[in-house]
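Figure S7 source data.
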Amino acid sequence: MADLKGKFSTIFFDADDTLWENEGYFRAAEAKFIELLADYTTPEGVQELLWQKQEDNIPLFGYGSKTYMIGMTDAALELCGGTMPEHIYYGVKKIITELAFHELEIMEGVEETLKALQGRYKLIVATKGDLPEQMAKYRKSGLAKYFHHCEVMENKDENNYLELAAKNDLDPSEILMIGNSVKSDIAPVVNIGGWAINTPHEMTWAHELMDMPESDRIIVVDGIKDILNYL
Ligand SMILES: [Mg+2]
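C-alpha cells for the predicted magnesium ion complex:
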C-alpha cells in the first residue's frame, strides 16, 4: 500500500508516545521507586514485583498513573513485609504526583503534521487511560485546536475499536489509526479490517510489546512527519 489520499475522511491518532512523550516519564518514576526500595531488595526484584502488581491492577482499574500508584503501594507493602513505613508511602505518592503533573513535551514534527492535515481530514485523538488524566494532557498539549475531539478509550482491543468506529459512524474499513504501539494501535485495527500507520518510539512499555502482524494495510514510518507522504 502506498497512496491513501482520498481513502479516508477521518484519521485517529494515538496520544502517548505518538503526539507527546510519555513512556520516558514512567521509566523515570520506576527508577525512583527502585531507589526508594533499595534497602529491601535488588533493583531487578523491585522491578519484577512492580511489573506483576501493575499487571494485576490494570484489569481492575485501567491505565494511568493512579493505577501505577496502586501497583507501587502493593509492591512496596509486600517488600516491606506487610507494614509500610510512612516515608515509603509518601515517597510513592511523591513519585506519582510528579509523574501525573509533569510538563508535556510534544514530539518532533507533530504540530506541523497536524497543521498540514487539518481541514483535509477529521482528526480525532484515540487514547486509552484514565479519563481526567488523559483529558488534562489533551487540553494542556495545545494541540486540541487541530482535533475534532478526543476519545479516551477503556482499552484498545478489537471490540473497543469496533465501538469507536460505530460511535463515529464509520465502517471499520474506514478507520486509519496512527500510533507507536503495535499491540494497541496497529494489530487490533488491522484485525477488524482497518488501516494503520506505525510511528515507532524508541521506548515502548513491556506491556505493549508485540510482533508486527503481516498485513498490506500497515505502513511503518520513521517519524510522524513521514505520514504526510501517504495522506
Ligand atoms: Mg502510545
